[in-house]
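Q: I have 488 residues here and want to know how they pack in 3D. Can you give me a structure?
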Amino acid sequence: METLTQSPSPSPNRRSLIYYQISVLLLTYSAYASFHASRKPPSIVKPALGPDPSDGTGGWPPFDGFRGPHRLGELDLAFLSSYSAGMYFAGHAGDRLDLRLLLSAGMLFSGASTIAFGLGFFFKIHRLTFFVAVQVFAGLFNSIGWPCVVSVVGNWFGRSRRGLIMGVWSSHTSIGNILGSVMASSVLEFGWGWSFMLPGLFIVVVGVFVWGFLVVDPREVGFGAPEAVTEIEMNHGGGGSGGCSGECLGLGDGEEMGLLESSSKAEVDSVKAIGFFEAWRLPGVAAFALCLFFSKLVAFTFLYWLPFYIRHTAVAGVHLSQKTAGMLSTIFDLGGVLGGISAGFLSDGINARAVTSIIFLVCSIPVLIIYRIYGSISMSFNISLMFLSGYFVNGPYSLITTAVATDLGTQDSVKGNSRALATVTAIIDATGSVGATLGPLLTGYISTRGWNSVFFMLVSANSLAIIFLIHLAKAEITSKLNETRLVS
């Protein structure tokens, strides 16, 4: 590795850099996809746990009967509330501990929790407290994942084309949902316990690979401080002006040299990790965190309740089977893959994160209304509108949790403090996760009164998400107009 740092020829550096960047992207992508795969089984098995939609009978005690949907919503509350609380602590831990060990430990224990839930089927457990306790532990261990993977990716990629790179990379959320849906649905007919066993084993296996092969920092392989990675990118065509500038977010002007700006490892280690309340006061953090609160409420309501909604809503007059409903729900996630990539690409192109988020949020409102009204007419209508719903709902959610969180965690206001990224990322995603907790819980209660009320809640949430970004969007537009005047 000595030659990588000192050789005057840029070619070895460039080839080696690409190798490590691809490796980091693939491992972190697989890691977080496996996290989401392990979260998907509860939504897939909801139709099996709850009462039959046709006559209200059947189900797995204590989730049978009229109060079954309420208790299923309480399961979501147990997972997501502990996930939200754990996220705040995980951000601090990510800024202080070895990210590779922390991430792999979170994956292994998350897999164990998923498997433990499935064991309830094999041991015929019918106590609500058991399932709630398992979900609490699963939420805590799952909260470790996001701050870790974002920080690792942030170490390896500078600001240039961050929106597009992270837009593509953030598709791991939807791909993980699809993998989890396929694995859980494919074995549901053999008993709902198997729907937890496969995703649980999957995240454990991926966690072993992460522990063995992930390189979390360029200095570990001889590149020096992470700023050197950005310098190599810029000298070999990797630069560009993509991404929202600090000015348009109301931030500083100097954040153009990558995610970490310390000149040596000793200097980085001497920097004190940013405080919780200090991170909240960074420009733009509160606005995007509150926007994510409502947009993630919508996204996670679909994540946890879409198979249940499909199963309980006749398409062309026919109620679909549990397996078919689970498989069909993956269409929403396929739309989310394209939506996340499109949002990242557009935000780089127009250099405005808040404006891009608002565009997607505004478009999602009529799409959700149309999906509720016309989605049951035919299978083709259902699939098309579900795809569009996923596209517009997941676009801003993916953008804010990746590129925006990284922008805010590395802005000029932190003065080169590389240890702010995981904390800021955790604050934004944890605040969003509080909304994610609220949405599925409310759906469990509201759905018993009718699905029109649920969709009214979703449309209202996206409308509120737009409100919190309006002043940032105005700042971005004003910045663009000023740039245009200067050029002319």
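Q: Anything worth noting?
A: Residues 451-487 form the longest helix (37 residues). Residues 292 and 447 are 23 Å apart (CA to CA).
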